[in-house]
Write a structure and sequence with these properties.
Helices cover 20% and strands 25% of the residues. The chain is α/β, with parallel strands linked by helices and 93 residues long. The chain has a 5-stranded mixed β-sheet. The relative contact order is 0.21.
């Protein structure tokens, strides 16, 4: 299993953007997953710089509906229209 931080509040890599929010890319032998989507399109810019193929992600988990964890979801859906999206009932509020 490989876990890559796509975006979070700080960055130790000058090429990557940081913002309040979080997103992790998780790759296993069978799946390519995304845990949360960060707050904005900065997440997708970082993913590209990290060599993550967003079109290959098959599952997205949203931990809760706050903007800093789910705000990037609309942008993700423009890049990937087939991933299964999981969130708990009432996660939007």
């Amino acid at each position: 299993m490989k876990i890559t931080t796509v975006i979070e509040d700080t960055s130790f890599n000058a090429e990557l953007e940081a913002e309040h929010g979080v997103s992790f890319y998780i790759e296993t032998e069978k799946h390519k997953l995304l845990a949360d989507t960060g707050a904005s399109a900065k997440t997708w810019s970082n993913a590209e710089k990290l060599g993550i193929d967003l079109s290959a992600i098959d599952t997205v988990f949203i931990s809760h509906g706050h903007y800093d964890h789910a705000g990037g979801l609309p942008g993700f859906l423009r890049l990937n229209d087939h991933a299964r999206i999981w969130l708990r009932r009432g996660a939007d509020g």
